[in-house]
Amino acid sequence: MSLQNHHSLVRWMSSNRGYLHPNIELAFNVEKGFHARVIAGRSVKAGSCVARCSTTTSLSVLNALHTPPFSCRGTRFPSAFLRHQDIAIVQCFFLMEQWILQESSWWAPYLSTLPKPDDIETLCFTDQEEDLASLKGTNLESAIKKQLDVWRDEYSKGMEQLRKLEWPNAMNGKYTWGLFRWASTMFGSRSFTSQVLSNTLPADKARPMGHLDPDHEVLSNLFEDGFAVLLPLLDLLNYRPFSKVEWQAGLNEIGLQVLESFDGGQEVCNNYGPRDNEALMLGYGFAVSANPFDHYSVGFKVPPGSPLEEARRWRATQSLKANKKGKADERYRYYIFNSEHPRAKAGHCLETSIFSQDLFESISILSANIRELQSDRFRATGTILEWDTRGMTDRRQCRNLLHTLCQLRLECANRLELLRMNMSRSRNGSKPTMSQKQQYAEIYSNSQLVILETAALLCRYCILRAQTTPKEDTLIISSAAAAERIPHTSPAVVNVQHLVHRMHSIIGFRTLFSFSLAVDLLPETLALKIRNAAEAVSKALERKAQASFSQPLAVYNQLPEKIKYTFLLAALRKAYTDRSDTLPKPLKAWIRDLQSWYAFDDPFWNGPTEDFVPTLELLMEATDCLVPETFDPIMNDVWSDPQMICWAWNVQEEEGLFSDTEVSESNSNGAVCQPSTYLLCIPGVHLSNRLLD
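C-alpha cells predicted for SET domain-containing protein:
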C-alpha cells in the first residue's frame, strides 16, 4: 500500500463520476496514516464538497445480490447461498472473492488501498493473550472475544453451505479464516450505513426488487433494517469528534460536504457520529483521548424471581402494546457516561447525571424495600423513582435514591479496583516501547478508569453530602476522593467539580443519619434518655452475644447500631402518641409519614418476623441483666411494649441502609469517612444544629 495506489484510486474514481476537491491532497505519516489535507497555500471554503463517490463504485451486499443497478461484476454466488445466509456473511464472502480476484476485480484500484489480510494482526486487537493483557478489566476484553466468536460462527456457516454447493474457492482452501476476518474487519472499520444511499436513484430502483424477484427476497426488509456500504475514497478521511460535515445524496452519487473552512496544511476529517472508544477500538482499531462520547458498559444480570424481573415483564407487555410492529423493545442500556457526554450534560439532576436511565432504574428496583415496591408508582409504571428539576417530588423516594447511590458506588469501586490492578500488571509487563495498538489500549483503559473514578467519586460525594451540614463542596469532594484513593490531580476530581457546579442536587443536606446525629435532632432531655438507654442495652447485648455465640458473629456486629435505632424509633413513636408537642416539627412530619407507611396497629409491622425472633429473645435476656435504674419511666414504657419494639425494629430494617461513607463532623478540615456503618434516612431535615419547635 502506497500513495501511488491512492493516487490511482483517485484517477479511477474520477473516471467513474467520483471526485476529490482540487485543493485537497492525500498524504501519509506514522501518526495519522493515510489522510486528506488541504494543499499548502490553498484553502477549502465552508459548504464545499470535499469528496464524492459514485454508486457504481460502492461495494455492498447489493452487489453480491446483483440487484440492478448494483452489479455483481461477474461474481454470482448460488441462489441457495444468497437466500439462506445472513447479510453479514454474504457481504464478507463477496469481498473475499474480490480480494482473491485481485487485478481482475472491478474494485481492484480500491482494494489496493486497503490494509492487507496479513496486516490485520498488527493493526487490530485479537483474542491472543498479548493483546488482551492490556485490556483486562475493561469492557473491550470481552467485546473482542464476543465479536471474534460471532465472526467464527459466520465463517463456519458460510463455508459449510458453499462447500455443499461446491463453490470453487470454498473447496480449494482460498477462503481462509484469516481472509474472512479481514473482510469482516473492513466492513466493520471502513463502511458507512445504508442511509447514505437512501436518497439516490439507484437505491430507489433496487428497493422494489425484493417483492418482484424471489432471488432478491432478502431485500424486502434490507433497507429498513440497514446494511453496511463501502464507499471508496470517502473512507480515507480520518475520524474527529464534532467535525462539521454533511452527507450529500445526488442522483447517482454520495458526497461529503464540510460546514467549516480549512486552511493550507489542515487535515480534513469526517465525523462518524457519536462513537465511544469501545466502538472505535472494536470497529476501527483506534481510540480518542478525552473522547466526550465515551462510556463504560455495565454487565447486568436480572436475578430470577426478583421484582426487577417482574418489572421487566410488565414493561415488555406495555412495549408490545405500544409497538405497531408487534415487537417488544427489550433492549436495556447499562452505561456510565463520560461526564462531558451529551447525555450527562442533558441530565436533570446531579445524582443521576452520568448513569443511563436503565442502569439507575434497575439498581433502584433491586434496592427497594417493601414499602417502595408496594407504591402506586411501581405498580403503575414498573419504576421506583420520580424527580423533576426542582428536587424530589416525593420524599418517600429519598431512601431509595440514597440506597441506589450506595449500591452504584460499591459496584464502581469493585470494578475500579480490578481495573487498577490489571492496568498495573499490564504496565509492569509491557515492553519499553509500546506498539500503536498498546498506545491505543492505554488511551482506552485510562478513559475507562476515569469514568469509573468519576462515578465512584460522584456517588460518594452525594452520600457524604446527605450526611453533612451545608459546607464548601470542595471539602466534601476532597474527603470523598481520599476515601476512594483517587489522587487530587486525577481528572475525575475535576469532572465531579464540574458536575457539581453545573447540576443541582435533589437530595438535601442532613438527610442520612448515624444514630448519634439522629439523636442530636431531639430536645436535649429526650436525647439524653434515649442515648443512655440505647448504650446500656447495646453493651449488655454485646456481652450476652460474646458469651452465647448462638448466632454468626456478623449478626452481632450489626446488632448494636440497629438496636439503638430501634430504641430511637420506639421512643419517637411513644412521644408522638403521648405528647407530640415535645418533638421538632420535621421529626413530627417524619413519624407521621412512618405511621402512614407502617401502621402502628398492623400485625405485619408490630409483630416479630421469623428472623427477628432470636434477636428479640437475646435482647430480652440481655436487658433482664440490667438494673431497673437503667431506664427512666418513659423508656420503661417503651421497653415493656413488645409490639412497639417489633414495630420499631421492622421500620429501621426498612428505612435503614448500609454505607461505608459515614462522616465525622469533628474535623475542621471537612467531612472524614469512617468504616462501614448502618444509617437511617430521615428526609426533610436540613438544619445544622439541634432542632427546636
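The first strand starts at residue 19 and ends at 20.
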